[in-house]
Write a structure and sequence with these properties.
Length: 617
């Protein structure tokens, strides 16, 4: 079965200079296109097609022209495929022709999966200005650090000016207060100019509650399934063909018209499709088609709570063949052990044995019994290479879904543990994801924030946050998500003064990201072995070997997960030398150099390797 190509909905330019509007509105008997000229407006009756489509065309229309649809004589509504909402979710749409942008990235071919180092950021809080354009001056710093791919939290148009982005209601429109579609194209072009790939987080499991008019047009949603955030998207019920086209054309638009190198699919476990051909497979195939057309490498990465390898399995094995997926077990194991937290899903984690296992397999629950879920969870990822899995120490969920948005550096309060946790991440065999500011120990929080206009919705969100965390922080002390001060508290300080703990941590991230590129053993995603010493039950030392055991080119890595300094095991190759210690003074640790490293401090990482490899220290 071939995936249907774009049906030409939205605004499309014709060869004769005309613009055509096309909309799917099967619930309406009549649709009028309303064109705005300041306070004046004129209406054009749209011609009806089969299966609920309407269209019309007009000559001499400029980019930026405001327009809306009127269904059966009702109120004006923005275009479901609007690419620009200059006046917000309730205002008219504006004509945008993305093909007119003057790209300069013609030589860009993308980034191979094994080279991906993600940097997740929220556009509104990454800079004081909170715009796409304001990110551009910081790109060179990120590239120099060793980041290879930006990952933007969702930018689809949401209500107000403050939101994480997961309440977007117009998936085709780049947020107006961030700089709209033109600003986004300039950011993507600038990323490629400095050698950075750029990914976009997209939400196909639900739409937000305010400004969501899609249900007035057609059966975009279904009540057959439930999500925690709103009505599920209709991927398999009556009328779902057009809904699937809506999503697949959106995938094509971001990858083709905006030149994104990949998409991160939010919470695919809440995408319900029981048809014979799952929408995720169609998303992947649509991305592959764009990659062939453009000659660029494109990746589709899924976030999933299921530990389900079918997301990645090839199609001939019944899988969806996505490029990769987030693996939360790695984060949970390290976080629970280092912080001691055991609430919620952390109940399933915390043992030192799990950290060792997490270095060898991405799913700690692969058909195992989960106390938190009170059932078996997950399936074996056997046969899948480790570069198919994205892991982290922090991300928007793990930080922002805490009551106050506390970051890991604030929770641990121990610079040595922060440095060791970074070493666990960057020396692991998986693709690392950094959350903005993590690389220098940002201590500003990242709490949940929003700026809805509906008073009932605002109060419901406030009360919901209080209820969720009442046992933890006493309800009233949860930051008000609607308050501008809550949003302002999340802005990065973007500061690492020379000689400070921050500067030391940032250098550690830089050096280990350099090591990931330069040390041959770290390029082999499958060749690794981990164990606890002196024994699998009581050993506070984690030993990780990267590279082939039969080759002298092996990285021999030790992490002291205990509370006291210990003698380093004497099981290394005779010619091996010390290449790295997380406790070097250049990282503001206790070691002055890499000489006579025979003991390993508490919360220290030490790496041994061939004398021909670059040492850091």
């Amino acid at each position: 079965m071939q995936i249907s190509e774009a049906r030409g909905c939205g605004v499309v330019s014709g060869r004769d200079g005309s613009l055509s509007w096309r909309v799917w509105a099967p619930k309406a008997k009549r649709v009028d296109l309303v064109l705005f000229d300041g306070a004046r407006q004129r209406s054009l009756a749209m011609s009806r097609e089969e299966r609920g489509y309407f269209h019309c065309a007009e000559m001499n229309v400029a980019e930026g022209q405001r327009y809306a649809y009127r269904l059966d004589g009702g109120s004006e509504r923005p275009d479901p495929r609007s690419r620009w909402q200059p006046e917000g979710v309730h205002g008219p749409s504006a004509v945008v022709l993305p093909e007119r942008f003057a790209w300069t990235d013609g030589a860009w071919r993308g980034t191979e999966r094994g080279d991906l180092v993600f940097y997740e950021l929220h556009v509104g809080t990454f800079t004081p200005e909170g715009t796409f354009e304001a990110i551009v001056p910081r790109l060179a710093e990120l590239r120099a650090l060793g980041v290879t791919a930006l990952e933007l939290m969702p930018v689809a148009q949401f209500p107000g000016a403050r939101n994480w982005g997961y309440d977007g209601v117009l998936p085709y429109a780049a947020q107006n207060c961030y700089g709209g579609p033109h600003g986004l194209q300039r950011l993507v072009d600038a990323c490629h100019a400095v050698g950075l790939a750029i990914f976009l987080d997209v939400v196909y499991n639900h739409l937000g509650p305010e400004g969501n008019y899609l249900a007035e047009f057609g059966p975009y949603f279904t009540d057959h399934y439930k999500t925690p955030w709103g009505l599920a998207v209709n991927f398999d019920g009556p009328g779902s063909d057009a809904v699937r086209d809506y999503v697949l054309d959106n995938v094509r638009m971001w990858l083709r018209d905006f030149h994104f190198d990949g998409l991160r699919l939010d919470a695919v476990h809440a995408i319900y499709d029981f048809g014979a051909r799952h929408i995720l497979r169609d998303v992947q195939e649509a991305a592959e088609a764009v990659a062939r057309q453009t000659g660029r490498t494109i990746h589709i990465i899924a976030e999933s709570d299921l530990n389900d390898p079918r997301l990645l399995h090839p199609r001939h094995h019944g899988g969806h063949a996505l490029g990769g997926q987030w693996s939360d077990d790695f984060h949970h194991a390290i976080h629970a052990h280092l912080t001691g937290e055991r609430r919620g899903y952390y109940r399933d984690f915390g043992s030192i044995q799990q950290i060792a296992r997490a270095m060898e397999q991405p799913f700690l629950y692969a058909g195992d019994y989960s106390p938190h879920r009170d059932r078996k969870h997950g399936a074996s990822p056997e046969g899948l290479t480790s570069d198919r899995f994205v892991v982290c120490l922090q991300n928007h969920d793990q930080v922002g879904n805490r009551a106050r948005g506390d970051r890991l550096s604030s929770l641990l309060r121990d610079p040595a543990k922060v440095r060791m946790s970074a070493s666990l991440l960057l020396l692991s065999p998986y693709l690392p994801l950094l959350f903005m500011g993590e690389e220098y120990g940002e201590d500003n929080p990242f709490p949940f924030f929003c700026s809805f206009g509906d008073e009932q919705l605002i109060e419901a969100v406030r009360e919901g946050r209080k209820r969720e965390f009442s046992e933890l922080v006493g309800g009233e002390s949860v930051p008000d998500p609607q308050a501008e001060a809550t949003f302002a508290s999340a802005r990065l300080s973007w500061s690492w003064p020379k000689g400070s703990l921050r500067a030391g941590l940032r250098r550690l991230y830089h050096d280990l990201l350099t090591a990931r590129r330069e040390w041959p053993a770290l390029r082999h995603s499958q060749r690794r072995a981990a164990r606890l010493l002196p024994d699998a039950e009581g050993g506070p030392i984690l030993e990780l070997r990267r590279g082939s055991a039969a080759s002298p080119d092996q990285a021999h890595i030790f992490f002291n997960l205990g509370t006291h300094a210990l003698a380093l095991p004497d099981n290394r190759a005779p010619e091996a030398k010390v290449l790295f210690s997380s406790e070097l003074s250049q990282y503001t640790g206790a070691r002055s150099d890499l000489q006579d490293v025979t003991r390993i401090h508490s919360a220290e990482c030490v790496v041994f390797g061939p004398p021909t490899w670059r040492a850091f220290g």
